[in-house]
Amino acid sequence: MTNPMQELHIDKIVVHMCVGESGERLVNGENIVRAVTGAEPVRSIAKKTQPAFGVRKGAPIGTKVTLRGKKAEEFFKTAFDIVGRKLSASAFDNQGNFSFGIEEHTDFPGQSYDPQIGIYGMDVNVILEKKGVRIARRMIARRKLPAKQTVTRDEAIAFMTEHYGMEEQ
């Protein structure tokens, strides 16, 4: 029998789209993220000035949305099918989180190509957790997270293979 506190689950998914500039392209990106995820996006702000790319510190350059619960599960299943259920081991970090990219927003159901808008890609970042992580985040009686409650790369790969049929590239 397995310990229910040791079971992995998807805590949250962050969908990020960087367009590199504000204006009409950013508004189009926000509309696409809103249509694909069903949630209200937030703008990402540039942290540094990059003159070579024409980016100023404090300027909005992208959009992102955080999904949790059932919305996250539904979006993940759709997005994971788009990439063919294939991820490389290098997509996973040491804490068991992983990321993958979707090259074209038109791969999502209900999305079609519009020459006025163009094609936008996005990054999908998935954060895996075990139950009981709240003890490290709460304000009162905060404690260090025990080593057995942290997610390792191997556990995350095994979870994805078992629950979502992931194939390694």
Which features characterize this protein?
single chain, 169 residues, alpha+beta, 50s Ribosomal Protein L5, Chain: A, two-stranded parallel sheet, 3 helices
Terminus-to-terminus distance: 32 Å
Average of pLDDT: 91
* DSSP strand tally: 7
Helical content class: 10-25%
What is the CATH superfamily label? Answer: Ribosomal protein L5
Order of the strands making up the biggest sheet? 2-3-1-6-5
Number of helical runs? Answer: 3
Output the helix-strand order.
EHEEHEEEHE
Taking all Cα atoms into account, the compactness measure Rg is 18 Å
Q: Into which percentage range does the β-strand content fall?
A: 15-25%
| CATH topology-level name | 50s Ribosomal Protein L5, Chain: A
The largest sheet, given as strand count, sense and whether it forms a barrel, is:
5 strands, antiparallel
**CATH top level assignment:** Alpha Beta
Main structural class: alpha+beta
What would the principal axes of the Cα set say about the shape? globular
Low-confidence stretches: none
What is the total domain count? 1
Overall CATH architecture: 2-Layer Sandwich
Per-chain topology:
Blueprint: E1 8-18, H1 24-37, E2 42-45, E3 60-68, H2 69-82, E4 86-87, E5 98-102, E6 122-130, H3 153-164, E7 167-168
